Amino acid sequence: MSLQFKIKLFNELSTQELYETLRLRSEVFVVEQNCVYQDIDNKDQKALHVLGYYNDELTAYCRLFDAGDYFDNASIGRVIVSPKYRDKKFGHDLMREAILAVEKYFGKSQITISAQLYLQKFYESHGFIKTSDMYLEDDIPHIEMKKS
Length: 148
Prior knowledge:
Blueprint: E1 4-9, H1 15-32, E2 48-54, E3 57-65, E4 74-81, H2 90-106, E5 111-116, H3 120-124, E6 129-130, E7 135-137, E8 140-147
C-alpha cells in the first residue's frame, strides 16, 4: 500500500489536519531530534502543505513555498516521515509528490532546500546538488541544495 496525498493551502487545512501536522512536526523536530526551536514560525500561512496518509494516519508531511516566499527559488521544507513508518521508505514518495507539486502549483522546476547534512544522499537521489558548505541551523548541521 502507498501513501495517499492531500495538498492544501493553510486556510484549507481542517483543525484536525493542522493538529496532526503540528503534532508530527513536534514529535520529530523537537522531541526526537532534541532540538528546542520555534517550529510554529508564521510561515505556514504562505505554504502549500503536502500531507501523506497511510491507513488514515498522517505519516509524511512537507511544506512548499513559491519562489521569493522563502528562498529565491521555490522550496520544500519541514520534510518529515513518522518514525514508525520510516522502514517503508515513504520519504521517497513524499519527495516525488513535493517536486511534482512545485511544478504543478507554482510552475517552477528550480527548487532550493536547506537539508540536514546526514540526508545529503537521500536528496541527491531526487536530483538535488549541494550548493553550500555545512552550516548550523538550530544547532543541527545543514547544507543548501538545489535542483534545476
